[in-house]
Amino acid sequence: MSGTLELRLLATFEKVATRLSFTRAAADLSYAQSTVTAQVRALEQDLGVELFDRLGSRIRLTEAGERLLPYARRLLDLADEARAAAVAPGEPSGQLTVGTIESLTSYRLPPLFELFHHRYPGIRLSLRTTGGDETLDALRRGLYDLGFLMEARTEHAGLETVVLLTEPLVLVAAPGHPLAGRSLATAELRGEPLLAVESGCAFRDLFEAELNADAPRPVAFREFGTVEATRRAAATGLGIALLPEVAVADLLAAGTLQRLDWRPPFTLHSQLAWRSGKQLTPAARLFVERTRQLLREQRASEG
Question: Is the same domain home to 137 and 224?
Answer without folding.
Answer: no
